[in-house]
Amino acid sequence: MKTIVTTAYRPTEVTKRRAQETAQFLGLQVVERNKRPIYKLHGELAADIIVCKKERLELYPVGQSEPFFFHPNSAAFRSKRPLENDPLIEVSGLVAGDAFLDCTLGMASDALIASLVVGDRGRVVGCESDPVIAHVIREGLKNYQDMPKLHESMRRIQVVTQHAVDYLKALDDDCFDVVYMDPMFTEQIAEASNFAPLRNNADHGQLTEEWVTEAKRVARKSVVLKAHFRSTDFETFGFKRRVRPNTKFHFGVIQMDKSQ
Ligand SMILES: C[S@@+](CC[C@H](N)C(=O)[O-])C[C@H]1O[C@@H](n2cnc3c(N)ncnc32)[C@H](O)[C@@H]1O
């Protein structure tokens, strides 16, 4: 699907400049808004639309009237609970000072929790293969103004626009403590997040033997998979499943124990 860049309904010098910069970064065309509503632009251009506002970038996929934009999402309430009890942190064994690679960044909610845990001595990298999603999230993590307690952790996350397997293949052995993957579920679940408008844009590729082999080569401590509770990927790829009663998704872990 083609994507174009435009400004908010009433453009300013700031939003016009943002639109130019965004289009240049992503190699896309800028289309003047001319006070057209989104549904009209969708009809005229048959393209997904990135709207550059003063405070954030919003993506309107074709046929969607609700935009996708960065928001801490589930990280907002998870960050208020004891982090050592967060299921991702518990299964991964992630601690302060660690390096965390999120192979499937999406909304960056999991990466944000990991970033809170690793702190200023740690490192978080997030791979996102869809360039538009990656850029909306990259800009959001950089500029989000609410929830100041999360700013440092947001700004720490380095967003890489690349397929995770390609990124992993270029890495040295044992260079991250934890490697995490959360591919799109093959079974649809009711989503409370604002990721829902992006279902069609996201990369729906599933876990492969090569992906897991590369993750194991790169991880010192653990490789973690999140998947639908009915997924057989845990067993297929050798993850030890942590059953979470009454939840739609489970975590699985492969312990590497290469840290000493
Ligand atoms: C289920 S979402 C991840 C949600 C994320 N854990 C969060 O907390 O918001 C999966 C995301 O990973 C991306 N993705 C899927 N396969 C990928 C791959 N092989 N490499 C990089 N990104 C991938 C999709 O485009 C989508 O944005």
TrEMBL record:
Gene Ontology molecular function: rRNA (guanine-N2-)-methyltransferase activity
Top-level taxon: Bacteria
UniProtKB keywords: Methyltransferase, Transferase
Coiled-coil region(s): none
Pfam families, per database record: SAM_MT
PANTHER family membership: RIBOSOMAL RNA SMALL SUBUNIT METHYLTRANSFERASE J
Stated name of the protein: Class I SAM-dependent methyltransferase
